[in-house]
Amino acid sequence: MDWRDTPQQAEWRQGIRSFLKDELPAVFQSETLDFESMMTMRGNPALREGFESWRKALAKRGWVAPAWPTEYGGAGMTAVDQFILNHEFAEARAPGIGGLGVMMLGPTLIAHGTEEQKQQHIPRILDGTVNWCQGYSEPGSGSDLASLQTRAVRDGDDFVVNGQKIWTSGAHIADWCFALTRTDPDAPKHRGITYLLMDMKTPGITVRPLINLAGSHNFNEVFFEDVRVPVKNVIGEVNRGWYVGTTTLDFERSSIGNAVGQRQAVERNINWMREHKHEMAPTDYQASKHQWADRWIDVQVATQLAYRVISMQAAGLIPNSESSIAKLFNTTLSQSIAKSAIKMMGLAGVLTDKSAPMRGSAAVGYLASVPATIAGGTSEIQRNIIATRGLGLPRA
Ligand SMILES: Cc1cc2nc3c(=O)[nH]c(=O)nc-3n(C[C@H](O)[C@H](O)[C@H](O)COP(=O)(O)OP(=O)(O)OC[C@H]3O[C@@H](n4cnc5c(N)ncnc54)[C@H](O)[C@@H]3O)c2cc1C
Hints:
By secondary structure, the chain is of the alpha+beta class. It has 3 domains: 91 residues, Butyryl-Coa Dehydrogenase, subunit A, domain 1 (Orthogonal Bundle); 114 residues, Beta Barrel (Butyryl-CoA Dehydrogenase, subunit A, domain 2), CATH 2.40.110; 135 residues, Butyryl-CoA Dehydrogenase, subunit A, domain 3, CATH 1.20.140.10. It contains 12 helices and 8 strands. Helix 5 runs antiparallel to helix 6. The radius of gyration is 22 Å and the shape is globular. Flavin-adenine dinucleotide (FAD) binds next to strand 1 and helix 12.
């Protein structure tokens, strides 16, 4: 396979690099800007300003939501152009903007929203004035999401919502929530669900923090007690919310950004090993060298998997088990990289303190790498997809 750019693609790539050189705020170019700092950006004025000026630079080109049609403020970009954009952004460590509003709600509104709903919400997703959270999972419904129980009962011009969501990322900083609710408990489970938009300031909504393994507050429990949601906030038809909630747009689905991030992490560790060789016992150095050789192979595989997915999209095919392979491989690789780093650093590798080797990134990286194997479909669910849709094995 020849993955080299065509002359047209090379020109597009070069244009993105020049844009990044001119427009990416310096605050994002620091090697030491870790995930933790990004998540706590609200307390960091330099990062907050950086995000704002980066958002404005992207918005001018329709690059906040490059996959969206131009009439809705996107760039209508092909999957391959998005791939090159995402590749270059990852190389430059440029952060994504727009969160779940861009990734999930926007495409859903574009496909199923009324004109009034689009006018109300789309501009505010793009200008960053409204943050969205996703109210899907419940304590008893995650992988089997269609079994969700949060009830919405029609009462005049409103639905009255009662129930609980869990693992709701960013609910503590979200202005609005898109949620799946059960409106017909007697219908087959996929058919009695309605997709609702809720203002998080509505009386009856309570958000409680959940602290993750790495000690960070990213997700939450959200409780609904007699929450009145206007009927005009239903997206699509009542009881057809399952099909509304599974809408996707022509997003690039290769995980190239992850593959690049993994390669950068391996390179940082190899540099650390070079610099600290004199402190390591020769046998430990030898063992680490072999570990990084293995991780380097893994990174090449992750990159090839990304190319495989995008080459399918470029050919008009819809990647299915191929995206699951890339997700499973990438999330497992993050854990192996963190484990290899911890082993290389010995006892100091388990410290999460910023004064530890590489600012504690090995141990923090390990803790932060676990949730990714669960979010967006667990590793077991990905294996089920690969086994059934990829290998054609029976479900049971
Ligand atoms: C970091 C993070 C962020 C998240 N953010 C959000 C969010 O913003 N909004 C939201 O709605 N949800 C969010 N989630 C929730 C996420 O979607 C669920 O955790 C996920 O779908 C798994 O569901 P569960 O936790 O209920 O586990 P379960 O589905 O109960 O699974 C428990 C275990 O059983 C296994 N299992 C389940 N079914 C099968 C099967 N059929 N075959 C084999 N094994 C199986 C699973 O792999 C897992 O190991 C987030 C989760 C994480 C980790």
